[in-house]
Design a protein that fits this description.
alpha+beta
Length: 104
């Protein structure tokens, strides 16, 4: 059995340096209005944003007192889905609750 050694060696050189960027994050905001009940806002914060009852109450009071409150910060797709879920639930209960998103 003879071992054949080639006259050259193959080397795979990979110098790919791709910079991995973190995805942009978006704040989901609730806006105060004169018709949506505080109880419904807390319900939304519990069900859509998975907040504790304490955090939901604090956020609801911030929305009520300051006119706007942050529900959470998410990637674009998740934020968009949560905004849509809030609007669907609000319309089902005939509330004009406004929910928006903005890049952080």
């Amino acid at each position: 059995m003879s071992l054949v050694k080639p006259d050259y060696e193959e080397m795979a050189i990979s110098e790919t340096e791709e910079e991995i960027k973190e995805p942009s994050m978006y704040k989901v905001l609730l806006h105060n209005d004169d018709y949506t009940s505080m109880e419904f806002v807390v319900e939304i914060l519990l069900s859509v944003f998975n907040k504790s009852i304490e955090d939901a109450t604090i956020t609801m009071l911030k929305v009520h007192r300051e006119g706007i409150g942050i529900c959470g910060v998410y990637t674009y797709e998740v934020a968009e889905t949560k905004v849509n879920a809030v609007h669907v639930l609000a319309r089902e209960r005939e509330f004009p609750l406004k929910c928006t998103m903005e890049q952080e």
